[in-house]
């Protein structure tokens, strides 16, 4: 019997353990931290052996194959040792795809991947197709393969998940955009991160498709210098494309074999240029999967966005509060500020991943009346913006930040939580941060 060792007992780890056991592997799960109760129950119920708060090296290095959780960097000594011993270290996506019969739509990008994944899933569900959604969102892909292999699987894929693939190839790949993010995991080299994203297409064949943002210079220049086997289907807000998706007369058109007018951009449920792009990518994927254009249009008109992404919370005394906690990098915050129509009190900060805030300067000048810092170290934010924003206040948590913003904001303003940073200093996750902000707003 082959031995599968799973490092990290979160959603992807436990899902992989279940699938591994089902497929006849001897499974051992090891987590350096404490395992959450809900995952411990699943492991116990399935009779899977595990350890927590330690890694027993002897148990781990006699593995035939190791599945590493995306949160564990490749550079940790244990992973280096496994690789030196010639033991294959892969991601859940790689492991699960070997056993999956689904047609896979894979979505990656620095921003917009959650919304695009949800949009594709929403359209395909509306078309009554047997579809599952997983990867970096929702239920573990591996567990879905074990329990209910869907005809189509829509996967949100982070660069960390793509780093751990060998043969994985989606039938349809989508790259929403590429901007600097997670550089702390890529030796602060942007090109390493770019290579990671493009792993999504590296095993694709001529029968597969790569849908991408033609307006994104990073993507365009990579494609100029590298060969891709898949059929290229760009989407663009600026130019008409030979095949792919584009805008003409404020309407979305899809061109693949024939040209189809999908809908007017103004009736899209999610607003802003970045969301128009997400909708174009999703419509293109759905068209390849033979979904009728009326179903695509209806789905894009009634879609409800991702939680913690420009999510309206409440209006109090004429001030709109918006939760954009999912903006964990500068580019995501750029989109948020760009879509603000009223004077904005901006709540920002957290764990800096090597951010350059200068990109935000023109928007901050134009839209932001005050900055409320939410993080342990706010030096960089304060140094960047002290000249352009009259009022910058430091706070020590979501509740205090919300109260300060409440005092500053006047009727007709917007209070925007869009941190541009990771959340690990004061919060468990961006969801935890967003929920604490929403709670604080409700208590005002």
TrEMBL record:
Catalysed reactions listed for this entry: UDP-N-acetyl-alpha-D-muramoyl-L-alanine + D-glutamate + ATP = UDP-N-acetyl-alpha-D-muramoyl-L-alanyl-D-glutamate + ADP + phosphate + H(+)
Biological process per Gene Ontology, one example term: regulation of cell shape
Segment forming the signal sequence: none
GO CC annotations, alphabetized: cytoplasm
InterPro entries: Mur-like_cat_sf, Mur_ligase_C, Mur_ligase_C_dom_sf, Mur_ligase_cen, MurD
Occurrences of domain Mur ligase C-terminal (ranges): 308-421
Residues the record lists as binding ATP: 109-115
Top-level EC class: ligase
Keyword Cell wall biogenesis/degradation: yes
One Pfam family linked to the record: Mur_ligase_C
Principal localisation: cytoplasm
GO molecular function, one term: ATP binding
Keyword terms, alphabetized: ATP-binding, Cell cycle, Cell division, Cell shape, Cell wall biogenesis/degradation, Cytoplasm, Ligase, Nucleotide-binding, Peptidoglycan synthesis
Domain of life: Bacteria
Biological or metabolic pathway of the protein: Cell wall biogenesis; peptidoglycan biosynthesis
EC number of this enzyme: 6.3.2.9
Domain named Mur ligase central: residues: 107-286
Subcellular location: Cytoplasm
Role description: Cell wall formation. Catalyzes the addition of glutamate to the nucleotide precursor UDP-N-acetylmuramoyl-L-alanine (UMA).
HAMAP family found in the cross-reference section: MurD
Family in the record: Belongs to the MurCDEF family.
Protein name (database record): UDP-N-acetylmuramoylalanine--D-glutamate ligase
Organism of origin: Lutibacter agarilyticus
